[in-house]
């Protein structure tokens, strides 16, 4: 039975949400249909499929999909990874190259645009009334596929707004990540990513990236250890490169408040802007030279002073342009989510920049890192309470009622719950839209 919109609306109040939104299987099913099935979902970067026939398999709203570069047109297609015959998943490989895709069950084969190439033993279909040329026997394309500066998004729905409108102001974050390259382009490092299974609902991860009141508590063990280590260093010793990355996680409430948080349309948002946890990162002279030559002094300063942190592209991805990483949510079940952590190379930049990006990923985002598992432990504790019914409401009152309105955004102190409240406004909008379809 589908929950009525009246019941769904009762789950989200202006400054608290009901715990069942993290644990109820029916709500999860509706989220996949109405939010993940009706918005633009981040699929991957064009550099993951450089050559014709290259593919990468992932999911959208728990459905298996395939991003593949067309061998004829060179464009990037996103197809349902399902055979048109009886629905078997065509490939379970994470990535690879193929001119023709072949289903392992009865051997139907498909071109890279998803059209049926051949079905073995065609005589068996003669005079059966089955038209093998019917599009239903293809690997269907998703409703919409588009990309912005190499970042590929797709939607299961055909009637969504254009990708550019969906991203809105968040395009500046993607622009900044690319513009930090002297060539204006980024590319993924390697063919794969850190993949981190979170045994909890997808929303915890997204919300945490706009929760600036947790680092000084949840990550205290790590940041305290770094502080102790640094204070014991002999005078004049250069701190190890890891220190500049971990140190801000022990920042004060004042530090994070001054960073600020901005809420945008469609549930998007970001922390920082002028100041972030990357502001103090060392600027390597050879990198500055390359940037100056590419852009000139003034434009270079504009690019490098853009300091956003954890831009959330609701509902599927989060971007750290200053360190060139994207983390992607792939919900599996109501209490299981895979988080992918991708790192990018700034084309034309010195190798040192990439090494710092990789260092950051290992230290902060990877399953074996010194920070990410702290967060997961906290999500898991709430998931337990939401699942066993020992808490009814999840509180979102920090700095409630004190948002500042700007053109098409709201801003607040960095430790405000504004970003999370904004995500729930989008959640409600999507859930309501779904019922009217
Ligand atoms: Fe794929 Fe039969 S299910 S060929």
Task: Describe the 3D structure.
The chain has helices at residues 5-9, 25-34, 163-167, 171-179, 202-208, 215-218, 220-231, 241-246, 253-259, 285-295, 297-304, 351-365, 372-388, 418-436; strands at 12-13, 16-18, 41-45, 54-60, 63-69, 76-80, 95-97, 101-102, 109-110, 116-118, 144-148, 151-155, 186-188, 194-198, 261-263, 269-273, 307-313, 317-320, 325-333, 336-346, 393-395, 404-406, 409-412. α2 (25-34) packs across α14 and α10 crosses α11. The model has no long low-confidence stretch (mean pLDDT 94). The chain is an alpha+beta fold and 437 residues long. Helix content is 31%, strand content 24%. The radius of gyration is 23 Å and the shape is globular. The strands form 5 sheets. Strands 13, 14, 15, 16, 17, 18, 19, 20, 22 and 23 form a 10-stranded antiparallel β-sheet that branches. The chain has 2 domains: 41-148, Rieske [2Fe-2S] iron-sulphur domain (Rieske Iron-sulfur Protein, 3-layer Sandwich), CATH 2.102.10.10; 168-435, Naphthalene 1,2-dioxygenase Alpha Subunit, Chain A, domain 1, CATH 3.90.380. A hairpin with a 2-residue loop joins β19 and β20. It has 14 helices and 23 strands. FE2/S2 (inorganic) cluster (FES) is lined by residues 83, 85-86, 88, 103, 105-108.
Features:
globular, 2 domains, alpha+beta, 10-stranded antiparallel β-sheet, binds FE2/S2 (inorganic) cluster, single chain, Rieske Iron-sulfur Protein
State the share of residues found in helices, binned by percent.
25-40%
CATH homologous superfamily classification of the largest domain: Naphthalene 1,2-dioxygenase Alpha Subunit, Chain A, domain 1
Bound molecule kinds, no repeats: FE2/S2 (inorganic) cluster
**Poorly predicted ranges (pLDDT <50, ≥5 residues)?**
none
The fraction of residues assigned to DSSP E strands is: 15-25%
Which CATH C-level class of the largest domain is it? Alpha Beta
Count structural domains: 2
Tally of helical segments? 14
Q: Which class do the helix and strand fractions yield?
A: alpha+beta
What name is given to the CATH topology of the largest domain?
Naphthalene 1,2-dioxygenase Alpha Subunit, Chain A, domain 1
CATH level-two architecture of the largest domain: Alpha-Beta Complex
Q: What best-fitting shape do the alpha-carbon axes yield? A: globular
């Amino acid at each position: 039975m589908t929950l009525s919109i009246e019941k769904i609306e009762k789950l989200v109040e202006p400054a608290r949400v009901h715990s069942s939104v993290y644990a109820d299987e029916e709500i999860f099913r509706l989220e996949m249909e109405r939010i993940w099935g009706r918005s633009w979902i981040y699929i991957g970067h064009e550099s993951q499929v450089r050559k014709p026939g290259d593919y990468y398999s992932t999911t959208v709203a728990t459905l298996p999909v395939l991003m593949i570069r067309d061998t004829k047109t060179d464009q990037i297609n996103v197809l349902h990874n399902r055979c048109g015959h009886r629905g078997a998943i065509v490939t379970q490989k994470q990535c690879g190259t193929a001119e023709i895709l072949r289903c392992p069950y009865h051997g139907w084969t498909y071109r890279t645009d998803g059209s049926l190439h051949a079905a073995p033993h065609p005589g068996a279909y003669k005079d059966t009334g089955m038209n093998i040329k019917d599009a239903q026997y293809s690997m269907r394309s998703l409703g919409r596929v588009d990309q912005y500066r190499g970042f590929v998004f797709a939607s299961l729905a055909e009637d969504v707004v254009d990708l550019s409108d969906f991203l809105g102001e968040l395009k500046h974050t993607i622009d900044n990540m690319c513009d930090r390259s002297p060539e204006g382009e980024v590319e993924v490092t390697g063919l794969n990513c850190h993949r981190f299974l979170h045994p909890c609902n997808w929303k915890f991860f997204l919300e945490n990236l706009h929760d600036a009141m947790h680092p000084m508590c949840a990550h205290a063990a790590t940041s305290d250890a770094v502080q102790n280590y640094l204070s014991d260093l002999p005078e004049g010793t250069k701190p190890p490169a890891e220190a500049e990355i971990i140190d801000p996680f022990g920042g004060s409430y004042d530090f994070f408040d001054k960073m600020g948080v901005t809420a945008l349309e469609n549930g998007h948002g970001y922390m920082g802007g002028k100041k972030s946890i990357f502001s103090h990162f060392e600027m390597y002279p050879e990198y500055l030279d390359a940037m100056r030559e590419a852009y000139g002094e003034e434009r270079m300063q504009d690019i490098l002073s853009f300091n956003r942190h954890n831009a959330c592209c609701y509902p599927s991805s989060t971007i750290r342009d200053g360190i060139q990483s994207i983390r992607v949510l792939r919900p599996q079940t109501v209490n299981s989510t895979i988080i992918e952590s991708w790192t990018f190379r700034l084309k034309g930049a010195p190798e040192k920049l990439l090494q710092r990006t990789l260092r950051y990923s290992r230290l902060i985002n990877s399953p074996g890192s010194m920070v990410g598992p702290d967060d997961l432990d906290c999500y898991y504790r709430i998931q337990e309470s939401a699942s066993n019914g020992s808490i009814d409401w999840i509180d979102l009152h920090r700095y409630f009622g004190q948002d500042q309105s700007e053109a098409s955004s709201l801003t607040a102190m960095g430790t405000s719950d504004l970003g999370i409240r904004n995500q729930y406004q989008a959640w409600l909008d999507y859930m309501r839209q779904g019922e009217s379809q």
